[in-house]
Fold this protein.
Amino acid sequence: MANKLSAREHTVRILDKFDRSFNRLSTIFENYFASNETSSKSRPEITHLVQDIIRHRGYIDHIIISLFRGNYKTADNTLRNILRLGTYEILYRDQVPDFAAVDEAVELAKRRRGKGAAGLANALLRKIRKADTSVEKALSPETPIHQMAALLSHPGWMISRWIESFGWERTIQFCEWNNTVPILTVRMNSLQTEKEAFEKFLEESMVQWEPNQIIPEFYTVHRVSKIRSSSQFNEGHFSFQDISSGLVTNLLKPTEGDSVLDVCAAPGGKCGYMAELMRNSGSVYAFDVDADRHALLKESMKRLKLNSVNVEQKDATADSFQVSDKILIDAPCTGTGVMAKRADLKWRRRPSDLDEMVAVQKRIISHIAQFLESEGELVYATCSVEPEENWGVVDSFLADNPSFSVQSAEGRVPSGFLDNMGALSTFPPEHGTDGVFAVILRRN
């Protein structure tokens, strides 16, 4: 087709939609690919370009603004995203010659916004080609926060609070971790396939992989687009899941015949793993309040053929649940521990989100605690690195509920993943996983 769009043009269109919408980036991708003709071969490239441009957006804008004549922030949105694409390719895409990146961006600007925009793009991107950006990355503890925010592509308020929580050096490491394309892990469903068959499938798919040394069902995989659309995935042989989520699941020690309550279960990674560890016997009662996420949860359990998981839509702050001796609260949170995988999240979050999330988390744990059996165990977990969402919520709960106490996770997960209070606590640059927190609370 003569009017078939290039991967670059699809990239700019998706970036435009991201700027106009507050939807998750994954939802934007899903809706865009469903309504626009794109080849299966081009989708991984488009997805990577969009995610990495958003990941490095702060630094890219910093470079553009230093050379832009006029007010870049009020410039046409599509033009800004074309400039971001061209700048990204010059700075980060070594396999694309600089002249080709400039030419493609100029031609795209001409098609989308006319000759004037094309001339502007040509002049600015040629300046970026000649600019020495290597000196821009010099950082020290004396670097002003606004400059650190630009150079590290993170909002300044996040950097400020992380320096207070983790110190300057660990904050730099954390931001750099978030700006790196993440390595993904998959969880083999041992109910649907065996180790030898699964590894043979990975080999035949020409996927680089390594078995995980901590949880045997998990594998590190590279170039995952080759297996994401495979029949093995559709038949439930494996799921995409970070090992940190597997560690959270292991805190509950799910075994055959157990009855487990999972009140914030979507999209289903942890409850699916629990059901697999339970050999699809017993029951996992999985709930989520959001209709779309509930539907996603249901579809995921169907794909994995886990008929021991009972899925319903309920509100963990208000509805009634069956009394259980094992409960998982994977609480909604700011998600600051998973920003390497969710490149959009750091630009979506606002300082006020933290207080709002903490309020919801406190309501959930206070409400759900009444459904725990005496001597039962409740695991409270987040994918946040913020102290207020983790020990802050737990300490507040314990102060109001003296019949509960912290149970050390020693022996359930490797001690290197535990903090000095016995809770699971991962810091991405140090542990090589998503950032998660999880604590076992026992009803005495």
About this structure: The chain has a mean pLDDT of 95. Residues 316 and 368 are 7 Å apart (CA to CA). The radius of gyration is 23 Å. The first strand starts at residue 184 and ends at 188.
